[in-house]
Specification:
Elements lengths: L5 H17 L11 H13 L3 H7 L2 H17 L9 H28 L10 H12 L4 E12 L2 E10 L4 E11 L5 E6 L2 H28 L2 E13 L5 E12 L5 E11 L5 E10 L6 E4 L2 E5 L4 H7 L7 E11 L4 E3 L9
Antiparallel strand pairs: 1-2, 2-3, 3-4, 5-6, 6-9, 6-10, 7-8, 7-11, 11-12
Helix pairs in contact: 1-2, 1-6, 2-3, 4-5, 4-6, 5-6
Length: 343
């Protein structure tokens, strides 16, 4: 059976934009508009015309901006003292590898119409991350709202519908005027804002869906008290760890064989700086309480963990919950981690 890789799904992001939006302007008589150039891209894909596609879709710039806006923030976070030269040089190399891979796969698709790929190179992992973060597989493109031209740059507002949260959003395609006064797509101008908003809405809807499930779990097992700290040990050099100690109550009902929980740590700005799952296997006696201790090493070279190390306990808050319970009779209860209907 044929399978589509995560890499080709991220390529499908731009392909679907071009085909779905460009078709709206197939009969347009205005040859020099950004909309007409989008239509040229759509036709180039259908006709496997790579030269026209590359003229009106600047893949190097598009995927470079996509890396900066979508992938790079997940690999490192800015700190007060900035990114050191060593990390910056690595990031540049990783970025170029990602761009080269995406350009190559996009060319193959335009020329052959095939989305198949068996490449398992390291950059494939970045493509997977790109796909997961953008999640354009669950998006329907509806129409173009408006086009704004500012000199040699145009911004085309595309209305899309995110199927999982059932809401419309506006994506702003960025285009650059060419010498013959046609246009080339170079990026998505508001991708960061889109991802932030869609992530927030998914979290809110997922919390609503999980509320009755969480209640069922709490009727069986719950965290009755908790404490946390992050430690520094200097005996063999500096080392850091975050420790979490919950007291778990096993209530009346079925006997718990194993439980999985999750603890999230937030700074005073309510930004999540650390998250870990914890697990312990029993079986555990019914109508009992038990204290557990979990600890995770912290890396001072990881920006978010460095922030946690440098923040006092008094400026931190935690949110923890049991997210999955397995019972000795073979049954289980668990929260949903992804929105239903994800492709």
């Amino acid at each position: 059976m044929r399978t589509r890789t995560k890499l080709t799904l991220s390529i499908a992001l731009i392909i679907v934009v071009c085909i779905s939006v460009g078709a709206l302007f197939y009969f347009s008589g205005q040859k020099k508009t950004p909309e007409h150039s989008i239509n040229l891209i759509s036709n180039a894909i259908k006709q496997h015309d790579l030269a026209t596609f590359e003229k009106h879709f600047d893949m190097e710039t598009f995927y470079g901006e996509a890396f900066d806006d979508v992938i790079a923030p997940t690999l490192r976070q800015p700190t007060q003292d900035g990114i050191n030269d060593f990390l910056a040089s690595i990031m540049s190399s990783v970025k170029q590898s990602f761009v080269n891979s995406m350009v190559e796969q996009t060319r193959k698709y335009v020329e052959s119409g095939s989305l198949e790929s068996d490449n398992k190179a390291p950059e494939q992992i970045l493509a997977k991350k790109f796909t997961e973060l953008t999640d354009f597989r669950n998006v329907t493109f509806k129409n173009i709202k408006e086009t704004k031209i500012e000199g040699n740059i145009a911004y085309v507002d595309v209305i899309i519908h995110q199927n999982q949260v059932d809401e419309d959003f506006t994506l702003q395609l960025k285009m650059r005027k060419l010498q013959d006064e046609t246009w080339s797509v170079v990026g998505i101008n508001n991708i960061h804002e889109f991802l932030t908003e869609i992530s927030k809405m998914k979290a809110e809807k997922l919390a609503v869906l999980n509320k009755p499930l969480a209640k069922k779990i709490q009727e069986q097992v719950a965290i009755s008290s908790e404490k946390f700290e992050h430690q520094k040990n200097n005996r063999y050099g500096a080392s850091y760890a975050f420790s979490y100690t919950p007291t778990v109550e096993f209530k009346q009902g079925k006997q718990v064989a194993e439980f999985i929980g999750q603890v999230d740590v937030y700074n005073k700005n309510k930004d999540r700086v650390f998250s870990q799952k914890f697990v312990n296997a029993g079986p555990f006696p019914v109508n009992s309480k038990q204290e557990f201790h979990f600890s995770w090493p912290l890396n001072p070279f990881v920006p978010s963990e460095k922030e946690l190390i440098n923040t006092s306990d008094s400026d931190l808050t935690i949110k923890a919950a049991i997210i999955r319970v397995n019972f000795t009779d073979g049954s289980e209860l668990h929260l949903m981690e992804n929105m239903p209907g994800a492709k």
